[in-house]
From TrEMBL, chain A:
UniProt entry tagged with the keyword Calcium: no
Residues that span the membrane, as ranges: 31-49, 118-141, 153-176, 196-215, 250-279, 299-322
GO cellular component, one term: plasma membrane
InterPro entries for this protein: BPD_transp_1_N (IPR045621), MetI-like (IPR000515), MetI-like_sf (IPR035906)
A Pfam family reported for this protein in Swiss-Prot or TrEMBL: BPD_transp_1
Alphabetical list of SUPFAM superfamilies matching this protein: MetI-like
Recorded family membership: Belongs to the binding-protein-dependent transport system permease family.
Protein localization: Cell membrane
Topological relation to the membrane, as annotated: Multi-pass membrane protein
Keyword Cell membrane listed: yes
Residues in the signal sequence: none
Protein's organism: Umezawaea endophytica
The entry's keywords: Cell membrane, Membrane, Transmembrane, Transmembrane helix, Transport
Protein name: ABC transporter permease
TrEMBL record, chain B:
TM helices/strands, residue ranges: 21-38, 79-105, 126-152, 158-178, 198-221, 241-270
Protein name stated in the entry: Dipeptide/oligopeptide/nickel ABC transporter permease/ATP-binding protein
Pfam families on file: ABC_tran, BPD_transp_1, oligo_HPY
UniProt KW keywords: ATP-binding, Cell membrane, Membrane, Nucleotide-binding, Transmembrane, Transmembrane helix, Transport
Membrane topology: Multi-pass membrane protein; Peripheral membrane protein
Signal peptide: none
Family affiliation: Belongs to the ABC transporter superfamily. Belongs to the binding-protein-dependent transport system permease family.
UniProt cross-references to PROSITE patterns, sorted A to Z: ABC_TM1 (PS50928), ABC_TRANSPORTER_1 (PS00211), ABC_TRANSPORTER_2 (PS50893)
Natural source organism: Umezawaea endophytica
Highest taxon in the source lineage: Bacteria
One GO term describing the cellular component: plasma membrane
Subcellular location: Cell membrane; Membrane
Length: 331, 636, 256
């Protein structure tokens, strides 16, 4: 009674009436607002570059006339808010100007690179989830209430090491073993399906290990709950105890961590694509930042940031689907 | 204090603690020593020894300028570690300030800042750092700064959430009531309580920073030639992975070892802080107490639903035996109350009957018969069937005993589906029927709902309904009304009473509240320190209890009829810890009647009349009619 | 002479359609040197009322007076002197495991109370004297809360509150987290302290039998309102409100 108002249970209804429209509206609104903040941050980033960004990019030896001409083409001499409006409009109409270095339209660059990166990240994510969730659940069951110290130690050390080894280091190790020593898989580049194997494993290992650890801890928590004791007191078969009573209660945590894993996977593409010379956004991002090709970097900031926001949105909605109570909490 | 400090030191003696300590000393030692000893070897260009493989001269070969790879990797330790530490310190300072700011700012601004922090935590720090590099430029300084800024949100959120939890605690409320100043509250109460998680997080962050900085250097954003850290070495060596693999693999190994070291150190720090290291190999010897004999073979065995003889529950890991030789029986249609304080072993006794003692507890008994079958001798499947149908348990907290993610109807129906082979439809119909039987309004609708929509009293009714799915011969109710309001309590007690009467089931009713027990039970078992110390009919509870503990318990409870001018009776001291049981009577240290003899030998539980047993050397002589002489015999 | 008076106190949480009224227009008086028992079930608003009196929950309307002087009122922030006077009302919380700072020794915790007492009314109490008052061994001064049992912690919390030399003590379910055999000792202690120090007590509990043992007057709360107030004997023996009667009937008493 000292707590604030508890949500009244009787308002809970599944289905698409009740709190759902409010919930979805609020989530979408939050996403849109975050996107605007993100775009503004990307725009602000360029204008926070000390000195003249064009001279910065073209180098100190660039002819003043060329610099001035480039500034004019990019509209950098216009008032700030005009530039801002143009930038936002460009994002919406998928027309973000040209690269300073290659003079190719940024939109074209992005259209070419995005599928490679998304393909890599998606494959790695699926692999991570498919391996980690069952593994974590089984480990959680095996080590519940402090059972089986051996399994516990083995599981935590193996997943611990994999969650620590950075993806690019793992990538180098994999290349050394499978490409250099045994010569069974390609060293780099995107060619056939076999070219996916090493980068996908390098990307997936860390997030998978992290996810498996969290699922195990969550499984242990859920298995210690009173309602699991109730289920055991009913002498239900193990299948029902774990799948019906335990699993749904750890989905929320698993989804949350999966979302984080996907975000960190996306960040990992930068390094892994660099190791494997993968023709994706991450690899290009490194080169564009180093060459200060800011129109491209701006677009990439929006791409990566937008992906993270989209993942968060998807996780929130999915959690609401599997656990209707969270909809009530939100509204 | 004693327990926790030794627990803290013990963490450092575990294999994890020892190996972490060794690694940490090694990494720091190399960082300090290597540049002094190997500095020249690592940087002298030797044209004669370019790109060599392994040799005695150069253990892991040389780089394209003829420099020793191993020496370069070891020397790079210092720069790599120092940069990681600086990054962490900057990230921590910025993050802690940002996390504390919302408490100082106004409500609106504070919320905006918290929202910003929460949003930026979602972005992987490496990605943030790359974009920040646009502004801060490349190089070691830029990398440290950008990464620190990118990692700061993590610290900010940790600071904010732990501080918010501490700020909302009762002890802060108490300090505010004492008009303790804001600054002092922050310094004396909040900071000390959030420092530990922050320090632990910082330790781990050194590891993550080291890994991320290596990544940045590898990409060309961090340390620039001629300086070198591991990331730089890796990026230089990767091109020659076919010719001199060590050029790439050595820095990889160094990055992994050092990263692992700091992350393990964070893990160990967590354990030290929470003091929850397992103390292994220190299990104390189990104190064995004299086993109480069963009073006598009372009544015809036919209607005995539960017979327990010499039941013990032992936890070998802790070296404790919280239930020590308990014997009793429950007959059909009877309500037996079990009373005791927390730690008396009453709930574990019930758990042992239902085979629900938590791991690694060991249950032993000479007899454990449920509905005429010795549960211990049954095969697993048969035991599950007997326990699933003959026994039902109602637990204390109905808010947590029902699964929040499963519809109430299904939680009831699955009992009949599994044990009685009912069809889905029949089981669902039975569930609705049982919900109706426990007076839940509109049971069809309620069966389709989740427990979240039920009030506490309704949930407990649903639990009782669940216990009726399979016509059990014994219902164990473990503190079933403790979590409920008194007016709701009444209804639940009445319902349990009806259930016993209508179905001729037996009820084992466990409670710490002797008044509640007296309202429903006909016979009472009083437990203390893992043993039954008295068994008596409820009618004898108020005026005719034999054990001093029972008498004190009865007298210490405020009652609507008691004289308000007199102080409440109290029992000095507290129950013995399960790992420090006295040799003699376990109640002797608190007993006003105890003498030397009581402290030397534990009294056996002896019969002193029909349905009456007591374990006391000095029960009042006027209790329960003529005294059995069995009690005198045992005393040496 | 110190009287705690609540006038038309309203506490609400949330706003708009989600607003709930936890305390609904409550008037209550705790006379000098008296114990008023506040009894009710969960959700009745009794703990929120206590928190509102000490300023831990905001008043929507109404005021709290000490000796006829307004020390708290809705929407208005009182000046410092008045707020300091608020410290003459102290509170002991339900859960002794969360109401003591886990990193502060018993002595340090109590010292905070002593400092408050010295600042506000030049009270000169000592840690030793206070430990003695709550019947704790003076050696306990250097212990941390985790080294104490629940009953001992509750005594420390009591000592800290008394250190400020309060006029009014609010005890919010102070025995409900304790074991039965410990509960009686804490209740006896509270009664002795009241006699020794003359502090007025607002004693909150869900257990009518416990309230009856301590209180001179009893207020019964339900749904945020006080539904019955009167002399303790009269309320427990001749209740006028039907809800009070239900409550009395529901109290589990030993079957004699």
């Amino acid at each position: 009674m000292t707590a604030g108002p508890a949500p009244r249970g009787d308002r809970i209804r599944s289905g698409l009436r009740g709190p759902w429209p409010v919930f979805l509206g609020r989530q979408l609104g939050r996403f849109a607002a975050s996107m605007v903040v993100l775009a503004t941050a990307a725009f602000g980033m360029v204008h926070a570059i000390p000195g003249d960004p064009v001279r910065n990019a073209l180098g100190l030896n660039a002819q003043p006339a060329v610099v001035a001409a480039t500034r004019r083409t990019l509209g950098l001499d216009d008032p700030l808010w005009t530039q801002y409006a143009r930038f936002l409009r460009g994002l919406v109409t998928w027309d973000m100007g040209d690269s300073l270095i290659s003079h190719v339209p940024v939109a074209q660059v992005m259209t070419r690179l995005i599928p490679a990166t998304v393909g890599l990240a998606a494959a790695a994510f699926v692999l991570a989830v498919v391996v980690a969730i069952p593994l974590g659940l089984l480990a959680g069951i095996a080590t519940r209430d402090g059972r089986s110290r051996g399994t516990h130690v083995a599981f935590t050390s193996v997943t611990g090491v994999f969650s620590v080894v950075p993806d690019f280091v793992l990538g180098v190790g994999l290349v050394f073993v499978f490409s250099v020593t045994f010569k069974v898989l390609p060293v780099a580049g995107q060619s056939g399906p076999e070219s996916y194997v090493l980068p996908v494993i390098a990307l997936a290992a860390g997030p998978a290990a992290l996810l498996a650890r969290v699922v195990r801890v969550e499984a242990q928590r859920v298995l210690a709950e009173d309602y699991l004791r109730t289920a055991r007191s009913k002498r239900l078969p193990a299948r029902l105890v774990y799948l019906r009573h335990a699993l749904p209660n750890l989905l929320t945590a698993a989804l949350t961590i999966s979302g984080l894993a996907l975000s960190s996977l996306l960040a990992g593409t930068v390094l892994v694509e660099s190791v494997f010379a993968w023709p994706g956004v991450g690899n290009q991002l490194v080169r564009s930042v180093l060459s200060k090709d800011f129109p491209v970097v701006e677009a990439m900031a929006v791409f990566f940031g937008g992906s993270v926001l989209l993942i968060n949105l998807a996780v929130d909605v999915l959690i609401a689907v599997v656990d209707p109570r969270s909809v009530i909490k939100e509204t | 204090m004693r327990r926790s400090t030794s627990g803290r030191a013990a963490v450092l003696r575990t294999p994890l603690g020892i190996s972490t300590l060794v690694l940490l000393v090694a990494v720091v030692g190399v960082a300090v020593v290597a540049p002094l000893v190997l500095g020249s070897r690592a940087e002298t260009i030797d044209v004669a020894a370019m790109d060599q493989g392994m040799s005695a001269q150069h253990l892991f070969g040389t780089d394209p300028l003829g420099r020793d790879l191993l020496a370069r990797t070891l020397v790079a330790t210092r720069l790599s570690v120092v940069l990681a530490v600086i990054t962490t310190v900057v990230a921590a300072v910025v993050g802690v300030l940002a996390g504390a700011l919302p408490f100082v700012l106004g409500r609106r601004l504070g919320r905006l800042l918290v929202a910003t922090i929460n949003l930026s935590v979602a972005f992987p720090s490496l990605l943030l750092a790359l974009f920040l590099a646009m502004i801060f430029g490349v190089g070691a300084q830029g990398a440290v700064l950008t990464l620190a800024l990118a990692m700061a949100p993590g610290f900010a959120r940790l600071t904010h959430s732990t501080a918010a939890a501490v700020a909302g605690s009762d002890y802060i409320a108490a300090a505010r009531l004492l008009r303790v100043g804001r600054a002092r509250i922050v310094l004396r109460h909040i900071l000390p309580n959030i420092a530990e998680p922050l320090v632990v997080n910082a330790t781990t962050t050194v590891g993550t920073a080291l890994l991320s900085l290596s990544g940045l250097s590898y990409l060309g954003f961090g340390v620039q030639a001629p300086d070198y850290d591991w990331g730089r070495l890796l990026s230089d060596g990767l091109g020659s992975i076919y010719t001199t693999p060590a050029a790439g693999l050595l820095p990889c190994a160094a990055i992994v070892v050092a990263g692992l070291t700091f992350i393990l150190a964070g893990e160990v720090a967590t354990q030290v802080v929470s003091g929850r290291s397992r103390r292994r190999g220190t299990a104390r010897r189990v104190v064995t107490a004299p086993v109480a004999p069963v009073a006598e073979d009372t009544g015809p065995a036919g209607d005995v639903v539960l017979r327990v003889e010499d039941l013990t529950v032992t936890f070998p890991d802790r070296g404790t035996r919280p239930v020590r030789g308990v014997s009793f029986e429950v007959r059909a249609g009877e309500v037996v109350g079990v009373v005791g304080e927390s730690g008396s072993g009453k709930s574990l006794t019930a758990a042992a009957v239902g085979a629900l003692v938590p791991h690694p507890g060991v249950v032993e008994a000479t007899r454990l018969d449920l509905a005429g079958r010795d549960v211990r001798r049954l095969g697993r499947a048969e035991r599950d069937r007997v326990l699933g149908t003959s026994l039902a348990t109602v637990f204390q907290d109905p808010m947590s005993a029902l699964n929040p993610a499963v519809r109430v109807g299904l939680q009831l129906a699955e009992v009949s589906r599994v044990h009685q082979g009912l069809s889905r439809r029949a089981a669902a119909a039975r569930a609705v029927d049982r919900l109706a039987a426990v007076d839940i309004p509109s049971p069809e609708r309620r069966a389709r709902e989740y427990p979240g929509t039920f009030s506490g009293g309704m949930r407990q009714r649903a639990m009782i309904g669940m216990s009726l799915m399979a016509e059990p011969s014994l219902i164990i109710a473990d503190e079933p009304t403790t979590a409920l309001d008194v007016t709701v309590q009444q209804g639940v007690l009445a319902l349990l009473r009806d259930v016993v009467r209508q179905r001729n089931a037996a009820l084992l009713f466990i409670s710490h509240d002797i008044a509640v027990v007296s309202r429903i039970a006909s016979r009472v078992l009083v437990m203390y320190a893992g043993q039954i110390i008295e068994e008596l009919p409820v009618s004898a509870l108020v005026d005719d209890a034999a054990h001093p503990y029972t008498r004190a318990l009865v007298a210490s409870i405020p009652d609507m009829g008691m004289d308000r001018r007199l102080p409440l009776a109290t029992i000095d001291g507290r129950p013995p810890e399960p790992d420090r049981l006295p040799v003699g009577c376990s109640f002797a240290p608190r007993c006003p009647l105890a003498d030397v003899g009581c402290a030397e030998q534990a009294p056996p539980l002896v019969a002193i009349g029909e349905n009456r047993r007591v374990a006391c050397w000095k029960p009042p002589s006027d209790v329960g009619g003529p005294r059995s002489t069995a009690g005198e015999g045992g005393r040496g | 002479m110190s009287v705690l008076e609540l006038r038309d106190v309203v506490v609400r949480f949330g706003s708009g359609a989600h607003a709930t009224t936890a305390v609904d227009h409550v008037d209550l008086v705790v006379d000098d040197r008296s114990v008023v028992g506040l009894v009710g079930e969960s959700g009745s608003g009794k703990s929120t009322l206590a928190r509102a009196v000490v300023g831990l929950a905001p008043l929507r309307s109404g005021e709290v007076l000490l000796d006829g002087q307004v020390i708290r009122s809705a929407g208005k922030r009182q000046d410092r002197a008045v707020r300091d006077r608020g410290a003459l009302i102290q509170m002991v919380f339900q859960d002794p495991y969360s109401s003591l700072d886990p990193r502060m020794t018993v002595g340090d915790s109590i010292a905070e109370g002593i400092a408050a007492g010295r600042r506000l009314r030049d009270a000169r109490r000592t840690v030793g004297g206070l430990l003695d008052l709550v019947r704790l061994n003076p050696d306990h001064e250097h212990l941390l809360p985790r080294q104490l049992s629940g009953g001992q912690r509750q005594r420390v919390a009591l000592a800290r509150a008394l250190a400020a030399d309060p006029e009014v003590l609010i005890a919010d379910e102070i025995t409900s987290a304790l074991d039965v055999s410990v509960q009686g000792a804490v209740l006896n202690l509270l009664r002795d302290i009241k006699d020794e120090t003359g502090v007025s007590v607002l004693f909150i509990s869900h257990n009518l039998a416990v309230v009856r043992y301590l209180a001179d007057h009893i207020a019964v709360m339900a749904g945020g309102s006080v539904v019955e107030f009167g002399d303790a004997v009269q309320v427990t023996e001749q209740p006028r409100n039907p809800y009070t009667r239900t409550l009395i009937a529901a109290v589990p008493t030993l079957l004699r």
